C-alpha cells in the first residue's frame, strides 16, 4: 500500500464551485502529499460521478497524488482510483475491503475509539475522524469532538487518523498535536480566493 498523503482535499460539487480548478491548483503545490477524495452529492448520477472521478484520477496520477472515491466503490474501481472512503450509511468496512481488494486504500469514518477499533479490525487503512470543529459544508453531523476527540481515537488505533470538519491552517497544529496524521478539508480550499496559496498554508501547518 502506498504511503498516505497528509492533506486530503474533498471535492466540493455544490452549485457555483469548480472542483477541478481547485484540484489542479492543489496538485501543483502538494503533489504526492495530496489525497483527492472525489465526493459528490447524493443526487449525482453514477455517470456524473464517474466522469469527475476519471478526470481527477488522470490529474492525480502524473502528480504522484492519491485519488480516492467517497461511497461509490464501483466508481473507484472503474476509474482505477487507489481506493475509497466509507461511513455509517455506506458499505460496511469489511464488505468495502472485499470489493476493493487487499491492497487498496480504504478509509472509514469513526468518531470514537470503539468504532475506530472495529473499523480497523474490519480492514480500514486510515480513519476519517470528526467533525473536529463546526462545519457549514455538511448537515446533520453530531457536535464537534475537538482535538480531545481526535486524541482519543488516535490513541486507540495503529492506522493514520485524518481529522475532518471545519479544519483550517489555524486549527491544524492542535489537531496534529492530538495525534492526527493528516487533515481533510472541503471549504478551506474550495472557498479560498487563492487555492494554491491556501494549499501551501495547510501544508506548512501540517509540517510538510
Ligand atoms: C476523510 C473523511 N472522513 C470522513 C468522511 C465522512 O464520510 P461519511 O461519514 O461516509 O459521510 P459522507 O462524506 O459520505 O457524506 C469523509 N468523506 N472523508
Ligand atoms: C464530508 C464531511 N464529513 C464530516 C464528518 O465529520 O464526518 S465533516 C465533512 C465536511 C468537511 O467540510 P469542511 O472542511 O468544509 O468543514
Ligand atoms: Mg459516506
UniProtKB/TrEMBL annotation:
Spell out the reaction equation it catalyses.
Answer: 4-methyl-5-(2-phosphooxyethyl)-thiazole + 4-amino-2-methyl-5-(diphosphooxymethyl)pyrimidine + H(+) = thiamine phosphate + diphosphate; 2-[(2R,5Z)-2-carboxy-4-methylthiazol-5(2H)-ylidene]ethyl phosphate + 4-amino-2-methyl-5-(diphosphooxymethyl)pyrimidine + 2 H(+) = thiamine phosphate + CO2 + diphosphate; 2-(2-carboxy-4-methylthiazol-5-yl)ethyl phosphate + 4-amino-2-methyl-5-(diphosphooxymethyl)pyrimidine + 2 H(+) = thiamine phosphate + CO2 + diphosphate
Keywords, ordered alphabetically: Magnesium, Metal-binding, Thiamine biosynthesis, Transferase
InterPro entries with a match to the protein in the record: Aldolase_TIM, ThiamineP_synth_sf, ThiamineP_synth_TenI, TMP_synthase
Domain Thiamine phosphate synthase/TenI residues, every copy: 7-189
- Residues that bind 2-[(2R,5Z)-2-carboxy-4-methylthiazol-5(2H)-ylidene]ethyl phosphate, according to the entry? 135-137, 166
A molecular function (GO) term: thiamine-phosphate diphosphorylase activity
Query: Where is 4-amino-2-methyl-5-(diphosphooxymethyl)pyrimidine annotated to bind?
Result: 70, 109, 138
Does the keyword section mention Kinase? no
Signal peptide location: none
Xref: Gene3D superfamilies = Aldolase class I
Kindly list the positions annotated as binding Mg(2+): 71, 90
Please state the Enzyme Commission number of this protein. Answer: 2.5.1.3
Q: Which PANTHER family match?
A: THIAMINE-PHOSPHATE PYROPHOSPHORYLASE (PTHR20857), THIAMINE-PHOSPHATE SYNTHASE (PTHR20857:SF15)
UniProt family annotation = Belongs to the thiamine-phosphate synthase family.
HAMAP family membership: TMP_synthase
Q: Know the name of this protein?
A: Thiamine-phosphate synthase
Look up and give the organism this protein is from: Micromonospora cathayae
Name of encoding gene: thiE
